[in-house]
């Protein structure tokens, strides 16, 4: 996947993760993209480790894996902030 694809996927995943877990988290557009890209890495690593799949490109499976990773990052961030 190219850099532009990572950014687009990161934006979409970050927006979906913030929609699923609304809250008063700091950060705007850039943080949302970084959240999604980080979610893709975390979700892909965990899914590969568990043998479920991996982040292979712009498809539904990769989108769900990345969204799960982004939600996990949000949960960990909120737990650490408390």
TrEMBL record:
<feature type="transmembrane region" description="Helical">
    <location>
        <begin position="6"/>
        <end position="21"/>
    </location>
</feature>
<keyword id="KW-0812">Transmembrane</keyword>
<dbReference type="Pfam" id="PF04226">
    <property type="entry name" value="Transgly_assoc"/>
</dbReference>
<comment type="similarity">
    <text>Belongs to the UPF0410 family.</text>
</comment>
<dbReference type="InterPro" id="IPR007341">
    <property type="entry name" value="Transgly_assoc"/>
</dbReference>
<feature type="transmembrane region" description="Helical">
    <location>
        <begin position="58"/>
        <end position="77"/>
    </location>
</feature>
<feature type="transmembrane region" description="Helical">
    <location>
        <begin position="28"/>
        <end position="52"/>
    </location>
</feature>
<keyword id="KW-1133">Transmembrane helix</keyword>
<protein>
    <submittedName>
        <fullName>Putative membrane protein YeaQ/YmgE (Transglycosylase-associated protein family)</fullName>
    </submittedName>
</protein>
<keyword id="KW-0472">Membrane</keyword>
<dbReference type="GO" id="GO:0005886">
    <property type="term" value="C:plasma membrane"/>
</dbReference>
<keyword id="KW-1003">Cell membrane</keyword>
